[in-house]
Amino acid sequence: MEVEQARAAILEMKLFAGPQEPVGRVEQIHIAGRDGSDIRAQLYMPDSPEPVPTMVYMHGGGWVIGNHTSVDELVRTLVNRSGCAALSVDYRLAPEHKFPAALNDVQSAILWVIENAATWGLDRNRLAVGGDSSGANLAAAASLFCRDNGGPPLVFQLLVYPVLDRDYLTSSYQFFGDGALSALSTADVVWFHNHYVNRPDDLEHPYVSPLRAESLAGLPRTLLICAEIDPLLDDSIEYARRLEHAGVPVEMQVYPGMFHGFWRMGGVLAEARQALNLAGERMRRYMRVVDDAASTSGS
């Protein structure tokens, strides 16, 4: 497809997303980007008399397609299952805005939460990132960026079938990369990568390919939600192995028979609803407890 055709097609997936659950309130947010961009975001708040933890969430779409409305239903579900707030970010899309524009927007959104927490009833000490597909790539890259640049500290990352590398020769790419069974093919991933980066060397950068990071030590507790029939599966398996080796608590759940994109289909797939419930429960468990490091970092 051409870019505009693909952007229209992904919005049609909302037909499978299920009902739009009510949440406490929803606010349209404009964030001044650190490189001059004007970032739109949507803040979903639960009903709570106390400051609540916040997840900065990034939609998928290969850095090229999608927006916050394409994940509206699932973000509402996460908020209701977890009791946490979520800031869903309309980061700039490629190819109009190539790497690192989207990551810069994510970092600006994270800083917005820190700087505006008191105004909006957010707990700046309980901050997480999450996303699906390329959105999960941005979440993983943001975790690396925060670790490498002195914070802000993150307590959790939710990564749903993330794009983590540019190695198209893994077993899962070989099994599922032709797209006959998976909703994502190797050609799709190459198409998205080519739109996202300025030059092939960018694919070696750990903020584009987090598996290329020299170390994964110091990253936040991680939940990986993956599909069995997905070219990206082996990268998540390797990422989980490296996190565990680095001493980072990690949990990985692979949904048998599921394909890339199933996370957005809670209206028609029981497995998607199960995955959303799991993510919400883990958010509630891990984001609503202030650990020692966070509690001593100030507010």
Poorly predicted spans: 290-299
Task: Calculate the mean pLDDT score and round it.
Answer: 93
> What is the N-to-C succession of helices and strands?
HEEEHEHEHEHHEHEHH
CATH architecture term: 3-Layer(aba) Sandwich
The CATH class label is Alpha Beta
* Major sheet details: 8 strands, mixed
Which fold name corresponds to the CATH topology? Rossmann fold
Gyration radius (Cα, Å) is 17 Å
What is the 3D form?
globular
Strands side by side in the biggest sheet: 1-2-4-3-5-6-7-8
Distance between the ends: 47 Å
Kindly give the count of domains: 1
Tally of helical runs: 9
Question: How many strand elements?
Answer: 8
Share of helix, binned = 25-40%
Strand content: 15-25%
Summarize the structure.
By secondary structure, this protein is α/β, with parallel strands linked by helices. Helix content is 36%, strand content 21%. Strands 1-2-4-3-5-6-7-8 form an eight-stranded mixed beta sheet, sandwiched between helices.
